[in-house]
Structures are given as structure tokens and as C-alpha cells.
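Researcher: We're teaching a course module on how sequence relates to structure. For the next exercise, students receive a sequence and then see the predicted structure as C-alpha cells, so they can try to spot secondary structure elements on their own. Here is the exercise chain.
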Amino acid sequence: MEAESGRMERKNAASRERYRTLRARNRCTTCGASSHGASRCPPCAERSYTRSAHFRGMPEWGPEFTVVDLATMEEHGPFASRADADVCAAFLKLPPGRFEVVAGNHPLGASVGWS
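Model: And here is the predicted structure for the students to work with:
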């Protein structure tokens, strides 16, 4: 009822008081289990950490593109997109047939987490 009436101050004060009481008793502030002096018990702390922005698994790596000058075997790059590699070849004024764009995936690209 208080949330509907817009009186969040009381609810927040009650939540803070509950938190202080649980902390004083060495109880988990999430589930009320024994926390041995911490604010959360180990299962609640782990669950909170894995849901946070700090833990997202391994990042996804896309392919990298490298421009190779076939006359000198000089490599230019890596670039994040094929278009950037083409712009590099145009900037270097490499004629068609004298350069190659090589796409390479990151070694850990096959074993990624979620994004």
C-alpha cells in the first residue's frame, strides 16, 4: 500500500533497519542464513556476483582483417572490419591483384561465453 501511495521513505527506512539488524546478528541480508560476519552468505554472494555486470563470461571476438602487400609481403592491420581493410588498401594505393585481405579469427573465438 505504501508503494502505491508514493510513501517510499517509510519502506526504505524499514529496509535499512532490517539490513542493520541482520548485519548486527551476522546474518545474510538476502536470505537470513548465517554469514560469518559478511553481509551475504557465500551462496548469495556468488549468485549476486554472477548476475552483476562484472561477470559476463568471455567476450566474443570477431574476425580480424589484415592487408598483405604481395610484392613486399608487408602486413597492414589488423582491422575490425573488411571495409576498414579495403580503405587501407585504397589509402596505400595498392592496385588490384597486388594485395590480399586475410581474415583471421582470434584463437579463443570458438570458446566464447555469452554477450
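Model: If you want an answer key for the exercise: Residues 63 and 76 are 15 Å apart (CA to CA). The chain has a mean pLDDT of 84.
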